[in-house]
Amino acid sequence: MNDFTLHPRLAADTFFVADGPLSRVLLMNDARYAWLVLVPRVPNAIELFDLSAAERGLLTEEVAGAAGTLKHLSGAAKINVGALGNLVPQLHIHIVARSPGDPAWPGPVWGHSAGVPYAPDARDALLAKLINAR
Amino acid sequence: MNDFTLHPRLAADTFFVADGPLSRVLLMNDARYAWLVLVPRVPNAIELFDLSAAERGLLTEEVAGAAGTLKHLSGAAKINVGALGNLVPQLHIHIVARSPGDPAWPGPVWGHSAGVPYAPDARDALLAKLINAR
């Protein structure tokens, strides 16, 4: 137990999927992309170098696992991974399934356009798949 | 020794800095940002999950080290890390020093606008700093 608190912007934009060994796994509320966000449950972490080497090792395996899950579930052409944090400083890693023809292809999804919220049934179906794939 | 070959687009857009334990370290030829690119010297790697766990561990420490170096040298507000590969499939990780007022702030640099090539003396001065900071 620690004093980790999810940034309110991340909380507003996502749905809870699971807690991994280090990170909270979130589904971005944008039905156009299969898009996960991993947030290390480490208070005050902003940059990768704010984590310990052991924490980075856990995070890297969580990111690779989430990328593999998204690739498998979505059949996407490419997985994009990004840690930007220009607007939300709390360290968080985006993992996004991308394919030719998606709205932002081949550019990045970040800052491209407003998200399209999930319908509740589509959201719940994807959450179930993500939880079962872990 | 292996049959690693740098993708020609990465070779054209960057300058060689050094070879780390796993990755080739490159400086992006865009004088507007302090911007490194790390390319694991692993043939046919496209996604993070194409690397072994040991390779991912090396890569993660190289990325965190490069991020710390850029933060220290540039005094940037935030380091952006991204692995996209929508156009260049060879696995490569961008590490970019960002600050309010830079051309793409607060959006991502990728796909934002054409790079501004370095003047040779500025390039060589930064390369020397990067090599000495390792």
Task: Tell me about this structure.
The structure is a homodimer of 134-residue chains. Chain A is α+β, with helices and mostly antiparallel strands. Chain A has one domain: 2-Layer Sandwich (HIT family, subunit A), CATH 3.30.428.10. Chain A is built from 3 helices and 5 strands, in the order αβββαββα. The first copy, chain A, has helices spanning 8-13, 53-74, 120-133; strands at 14-19, 23-28, 35-40, 78-83, 93-98. Chain A has a 5-stranded antiparallel sheet. In chain A, strand 2 (23-28) and strand 3 form a beta hairpin. The first copy, chain A, is globular, with a radius of gyration of 14 Å. The two termini of chain A are 23 Å apart. The A-B interface holds A 46-49, 51, 53, 56-57, 59-61, 63-65, 67-68, 71, 77-87, 89, 98, 105-108, 110-111 and B 46-49, 51, 53, 56-57, 59-61, 63-65, 67-68, 71, 77-87, 89, 98, 105-108, 110-111.
Mean pLDDT of chain A: 97
Number of domains of chain A: 1
The largest beta-sheet of chain A arranges its strands as 1-2-3-5-4
The CATH superfamily label of chain A reads HIT-like
CATH class of chain A: Alpha Beta
Tally of strands of chain A: 5
* N- to C-terminal distance of chain A: 23 Å
CATH topology of chain A: HIT family, subunit A
Q: How many whole angstroms does the radius of gyration of chain A measure?
A: 14 Å
Strand content of chain A: 15-25%
Structural class, judged by helices and strands of chain A?
alpha+beta
Q: Biggest interface between protein chains, with counts per chain?
A: A-B, 36 and 36 residues
The largest β sheet of chain A comes out as: 5 strands, antiparallel
Oligomer, anyone? homodimer
